[in-house]
């Protein structure tokens, strides 16, 4: 993405009012070349019963996103827990649930993604057996909506970044335009503090308990508790 030039900082958008959109439309994301995506390449074809360097990292990924119990082993054995978690991951992401680190899985796991777990269950995120693929979207409690179709947005700064301001503003304008193209909403940039939507650059621990974890890793978590965040 154009904004990959950001180093430690991540752009995120904060809506002052709960976002009425249940789900963002499809957008093209480029696979990253992070150490984890390289690990995945080396794990191609790996399945239950094998021991391979990098399975521990895969366990970490599956754990982070809710498919394996927190604190579970980080060894390199591709055991039945890893297989079951991987199948669950595949089903969740509408892939064939082969339980094998196949091409589609590698592709999916290499994409930038939201930092929130897919499965939020306590204490055991990986019950025996698979659950069906979930709904593609849900509404926030009470199905809140915007009460208007013209929304304003503005930039707020959380961290200092040396970045081309013109390029950022253009990227934001284009992003809002994509929403405007497929919805009744229109968006204008403003410097007014009463803007409906704010965006900015932040690093590490910011406005919630989920610190940004660095370039190429999980992006900003999305919340619906009175506000909504997304990262680009
Ligand atoms: C979610 O979207 C995918 C891809 O468009 C589709 O195949 C699947 O049936 C949808 N799932 C539900 C529960 O609607
Ligand atoms: C900043 O970005 C704009 C738009 O992409 C570009 O036209 C301009 O040359 C860039 N400026 C610098 C100093 O890189
Ligand atoms: C939105 O911005 C455009 C272009 O700057 C301007 O012409 C228009 O009046 C603005 N709309 C509102 C409702 O402020």
From TrEMBL:
Annotated binding of Ca(2+) 3, by residue: 213-214
Keyword Iron (UniProt): no
Peptidase M10 metallopeptidase domain mapped to chain residues: 145-218
Binding site for Zn(2+) 1: 206, 208
SUPFAM superfamilies xrefs: Metalloproteases ('zincins'), catalytic domain, PGBD-like
Record: residues binding Ca(2+) 2: 196
Cofactor binding note of this UniProt entry: Binds 2 Zn(2+) ions per subunit.
GO molecular function: metalloendopeptidase activity; zinc ion binding
Gene3D superfamilies membership: Collagenase (Catalytic Domain)
Signal sequence bounds: 1-20
Binding of Zn(2+) 2, residues: 114
TM annotation in the entry: none
Keywords assigned: Calcium, Hydrolase, Metal-binding, Metalloprotease, Protease, Signal, Zinc, Zymogen
Cofactor: Zn(2+); Ca(2+)
PROSITE patterns linked to this entry: CYSTEINE_SWITCH
Domain Peptidoglycan binding-like positions: 53-109
Pfam families from the UniProt entry: Peptidase_M10, PG_binding_1
Coiled-coil ranges from the UniProt annotation: none
One GO process term, biological-process aspect: proteolysis
GO cellular component term, pick one: extracellular matrix
Family: Belongs to the peptidase M10A family. Matrix metalloproteinases (MMPs) subfamily.
Protein name per Swiss-Prot or TrEMBL: Peptidase metallopeptidase domain-containing protein
Species whose genome carries this gene: Glycine max
């Amino acid at each position: 993405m154009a904004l990959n030039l950001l180093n430690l900082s991540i752009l995120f958008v904060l809506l002052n009012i709960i976002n009425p959109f249940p789900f963002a439309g499809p957008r093209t994301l480029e696979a990253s070349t992070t150490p984890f995506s390289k690990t995945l390449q080396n794990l191609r074809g790996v399945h239950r019963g094998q021991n391979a360097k990098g399975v521990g990292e895969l366990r970490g990924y599956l754990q982070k996103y809710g498919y394996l119990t927190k604190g579970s082993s980080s060894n390199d054995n591709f055991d039945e827990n890893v297989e079951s978690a991987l199948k669950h991951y595949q089903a969740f992401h509408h892939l064939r649930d082969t339980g094998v680190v196949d091409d589609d899985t590698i592709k999916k796991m290499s994409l930038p993604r939201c930092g929130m777990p897919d499965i939020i269950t306590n204490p055991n995120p990986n019950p025996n057996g698979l659950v069906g693929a979930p709904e593609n979207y849900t509404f926030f409690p009470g199905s809140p909506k915007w009460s208007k179709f013209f929304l304003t947005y503005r930039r707020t700064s959380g961290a200092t970044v040396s970045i081309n301001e013109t390029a950022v503003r253009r990227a934001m304008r284009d992003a809002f335009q994509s929403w405007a193209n497929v919805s009744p909403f229109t968006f204008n940039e403003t410097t007014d503090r009463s803007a409906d939507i704010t965006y900015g650059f932040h690093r590490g621990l910011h406005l919630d308990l989920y610190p940004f974890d660095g370039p190429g890793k999980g992006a900003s978590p999305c919340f619906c508790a009175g506000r909504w965040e997304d990262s680009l």
